[in-house]
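New to this. Please check this fold:
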Amino acid sequence: MKKISLFTIFISSFALQSKAQSIYAQDRVYTGNQISNTVSVLDPSTQTLLGNIVLGKPQPDILSPLYKGQALVHGLGYSPKKQLLAAVSIGSNSVTFISTAKNKVLKTVYIGRSPHEATFNPSGSQAWISVRGESYISVIDANKLIEIKQIPVADGPGMVAFTPDGKWAYICSSFTAEVDVVNSTSYAIVKRIPVVSPFSPNIFCSPDGKWIALTHKDVGKITVISTETNTIHTVLNTGPITNHVTFTLVNNSPVMLATIGGENSLKVFSVSQDFKLTDSIATGSLPHGVWTSADGKFAYVGLENDDQVQVVDLVKMAVVKTIAIGQCPQALLYAANASPANASKENLTPLNLADKSQVIKLMNKDNSMSSGMLNVRSVGLTDLVVQDFKKLEPNTSYTLALTNSSNDTFNADYVINSFKTDEKGAFSGQSSGIIKSVGTSGADYKHVILIDDLSKKLVMISN
């Protein structure tokens, strides 16, 4: 028997590690950032931000009638065969094509009202863009970068998922409670599958092509469709604000991952155990986009409120790294073989740490189950204040304000917003004001407060 030295084993092991590292070094993670109107570029081999591709100015500069950049950068698609990234901007009705090798914008194509997501077919010859503000899919030739076809579908298409062989496209909707199954060659709808909710923004196909999963953000569910029968296999109760879904292999076992924004968690479901929930991993505030590395070892989660990406080790089932990125990440994708291995920062701009968001949580004063959270971002000379309240009194008017009081009177010294809750006692909205320094040393205002307009009583207060 031939002897193998420890040195040989060491060299072989090192070679395998180097090979794995070189593959990671050519990969990238991208996020579409809706407030800063940038695409953040991360290097997964070092788990660091390389920089941002600037597609437009941050809000509210986009409101100028002379504005020419992209607005509300949101959806992302990637073709590994072409090293081509597609970034969809909702507010400017556009999709921008970017060379991932050079981080360079190649062309911006303007399409229909409020497009949402981009998906390349497996061959990389076409990009299918869901035009959510209308009722069709825009098909763009990935070589010429021009629109060649519009496919009529149900009102409000949310996203497209192709089977691995490229024969079938599954299209969910944000306005219609159905999934349309389209023949990708004839562009004809072959079946319409009714689903439990009209709001399905995200859809994904399993690597083996057996399953299609789509999220229902409004009712906190995921529908799983069998591609063999084109029928619903199961509907899972996943949790409030179920955002994005994806598939991968963990220890050679197929799993489905989903971001649950209302619970700040990444949930893991075992496919082989009929989509049984097996793990729930705590994340930062409002997880949105999720995608796994090519080897399935890591999941990358975009945090909409924290302006960060968290790296989740899927063997340890734990967050192992948090990375600051652009403002308000929406779509996130992992792009294999996207760039040369030298981690070039060509055409990238550094992150402005002063733009980092601040999350303010409000505590209820009456031991109720109500909850309130503000996300505050600097936008020019003011702050954008995104608000989310749950389990208040239904159909009730409230005032959100700042106070410089430190006793039980808590006067509303500066009104941020007034709103009325819906029939479930919830409110989500946004306003502007200069509040980012609240509660800090020397600040004019000590707390954020919520007051019931009818009783004039204090309902919630920040820490």
Summary: Residues 1-22 have pLDDT under 50 and may be disordered. The two ends are 71 Å apart (CA to CA).
